[in-house]
Design a protein that fits this description.
With about 180 residues, the chain is mainly α. It has 6 helices and no strands. The chain has one domain (about 5-175). The longest helix is centred in the last third of the chain and has 28 residues, at about 145-175.
Length: about 180
């Protein structure tokens, strides 16, 4: 982004960052609401994607492709509808998937650390171990912790994104000295 464009958007970038941070802290205080909101957004997204897939199915000419697209569209709609109608159960399921994902990601990162050079591999190893531990903790405490885990993860993500954007903006905004 050219320097003049960055300066023109500087106020909006700062505003956006602050909003992200504020919403992050809000989610820290009401993680159940944030978890439910995230669950409902996922359910609505699945349902809409399913409807789009069904419409697409009716525009295909080959019967095999039509049936597959129709079946996938119905599957998406049913999954989305279940999550919308039963958001607590959807939240538990999504949280379980997140926990399993973190465990698998952590194990793969630990394995991958063996292929990196020793100086950099320690960070990947630490990251992998932490991801696996967090995943195990999430999975181990289901279904009870499902009411707050997604909200907490979203809160941390919003806060870290807001801080990162502000930090990068301040670094990029500094004038660069010309090399002579």
């Amino acid at each position: 982004m050219p320097e003049t464009e960055l300066k023109a958007k500087s106020g909006w970038i700062t505003f956006y960052s602050i909003v992200m941070i504020l919403f992050g802290f809000l989610m820290l205080f009401i993680p159940l609401a944030a978890s439910l909101a995230a669950t409902l957004v996922i359910g609505i997204t699945l349902a809409v994607a399913g409807l789009v897939r069904i419409v697409h199915a009716f525009k295909t000419k080959a019967i095999g492709r039509f049936l597959i697209d129709l079946a996938i569209g119905i599957l998406y709609c049913v999954a989305g509808a279940i999550i919308i109608v039963k958001p607590v159960e959807g939240m538990i399921t999504i949280t379980a998937v997140v926990g399993i994902f973190f465990m698998i990601e952590g194990i793969l990162a630990v394995l991958a650390a063996g292929f990196w050079n020793p100086e950099n591999s320690k960070w990947l190893l630490i990251d992998g171990i932490l991801a696996a531990i967090v995943g195990f903790i999430i999975w181990r405490h289901l279904p009870g912790d499902a009411t707050w885990v997604l909200g907490l993860l979203l809160a941390v993500r919003f806060i870290s994104s807001g801080v990162t954007i502000l930090t990068v903006k301040s670094i990029v905004s500094k004038p660069v000295e010309k090399i002579q």
